[in-house]
Amino acid sequence: xxxxxxxxxxxxxxxxxxxxxxxxxGLFTEKSxxxxxxxxxxxxxxxxxxxxxxxxxxxxxxVLGSDDSGRxxxxxxxxxxxxxxxxxxxxxxxxxxxxxxxxxxxxLDNQLSTLLVNxxxxxxxAIPPLIxxxxxxxxxxxxxxxxxxxxxxxxxxxxxxEWARVAVFIRERTxxxxxxxxxxxxxxxxxxxxxxxxxxVLPHLFSELIVLFFMEISRVLTLMMQLGIFGIFxxxxxxxxxxxxxxIVGKMTSYEPEWASMLGxxxxxxxxxxxxVSSCALAFFFSVLGFNFVGEGLRMLHxxxxxxxxxxxxxxxxxxxxxxxxxxGIAGTYEPSxxxxxxxxxxxxxxxxxxxxxxxxxxxxxxxxxxxSYLGLKPxxxxxxxxxxxxPYYHVEKADLFVDTExxxxxxxxxxxxxxxxxxxxxPVIDLRGVSLIDAxxxxxxxxxxxxxxxxxxDGDFFNGEGQLFFSERLIRETDILGVLIPVDHPxxxxxxxxxxxxxxxxxxxxxxxxxxxxxxxISIESEVLSGKGMNIVGQIQxxxxxxxxxxxxLGFNYNFMDPEVGRQQLNFAMDLxxxxxxxxxxxxxxxxxxxxxxxxxxxxxxxNSYYSEYYYPIKxxxxxxxxxxxxxxxxxxxxxxxxxxxxxxxxxxxxxxSTYLIGTLGDSAMGKKDLKDTYSVFYHKRGIQVLYLGTNxxxxxxxxxxxxxxxxxETLIKEIY
Length: 722
Known about the structure:
The protein is an alpha/beta fold.
């Protein structure tokens, strides 16, 4: 009667279970390991309402509890099996490849192979592999590497520290086989070393190598567990845990689901949240146990004299299975290749301009909605279109500044308007930059006569935008001036607005203001009043793995334009980006909601204001809003990308990491805040949503700049390396 090999049976069950979990994590949980739960509200037994912060204890919502960032421990372990076991398999395979080639080479008296095996073996026998791994992998540069490179570094380092031990074993076993009589007789008849290795040595080694291979996987997993306890793991991040009384306290964590990272980042919670440490420790324990049991079961069969994997078919089958498992795991650890999609030119017939409240704007919105439907985006509600009322505003059709009876003129692209009503004023210019308007007595007759019927130059350096308008309005209301000129470095070209005064208020380049003082100028502005229905357009690209609690990303675009060429460029860029995101939908871990805002040029008529009463994605489940309404909003040719990350805080480490990675990916194309420094975020201040602003330093943007931005966004949003 055959005795059941319990070691092999139990080991195979455990290994098959973990391999299935590694390959098909979605079968075991519907939750995402990237979801973060913050503060939760609940009612106590006394009926009082209270709050609690993560880690959350095991319960109906979190079967195994949550970690200190509010991530579900069960889903973290399930999805972490892919990365953890793949690294274990990869390191074991590479150790055997090196050990087999160099070990056999050393047994055949190859000097280079012998030198490498002996030197590596001596070094790593003198210093424990764990110590070497800690020293090397603690280097700041290596710890800061992105996911892919971090994985490669871990695999290489853990392979190098112990491949020589495998090589020594293979060398010793090969030497024993080479000294057998049947091998000596093969050599006598002239058989080549290569043929002897393939036909005589490897078949005799195969059973022992398979046993050793499973044992080696256990050794690698044990080493990873030890490294995790010392805070060495994939995707090591330091986030701000507490700022306290002026002291920043950081803690180590990992964004990537991987067992060693959970063990390392949660070891300090063993008293208050023991379920975190125990769960990942048990995952390591059972995986190591499973591979050890398989190795031990195969060893017992081998010692009993039972023939295992003795035919070429069996050996090829085992090798094929091992390679398939390793390949499937390795493929899962690397970022997906990105599909780039482009929308065909001329997909929409553009009018001369598209302004909020106009019929042309409604036609443009309907065409965008139709395109989103064609690309396969889902409406967030019944329709892609979200109408809202646009309050009356001014659209400037023409604005000119003439000097010395029209001998010299400045067009609208050379100065900026701060008031938008139709006016036509003519008179001399007087310099008031040396006068403190805060202390000035506007009722003083000499002062009033001095500035009467003149354009005054006001020093704008002491006031922000609101202060400039306040003192301009005061001068116009209480004196008889003809208008206000404010010198600035970069006047903003705005042709839409609500601000109106009886006299013109304009911003002009600082370098040009001296040429106007003391000369007679004429300012002529022609504008029309518009109102009606505004229209936001919203569509969503849905991730196949995102749940209701997965934090989503909002992308904001502008679709108004006053130049059809600018309109074509901005709409094509938006649609190309959306089409590429849709083409990579299966790789997305988060839902992406795209919003085309109406009236984005002017905050007071912008469709963003309607987001307060009717939001398109749950605010508590919004990770970040990336605003691109200012991409085509400058002057001249845009060669650089501007950004403003003032509304990204360290309190949200995943959002901060996304922003940092995206800006870093832009490289030399990103110039910094500069023209975007005065951005006011209604999302951040009124809804608490983290916001990253992207813009350009011109409206005629170079195609290379747009391509760089699109590639950076796709890499950040699809691969989620951050």
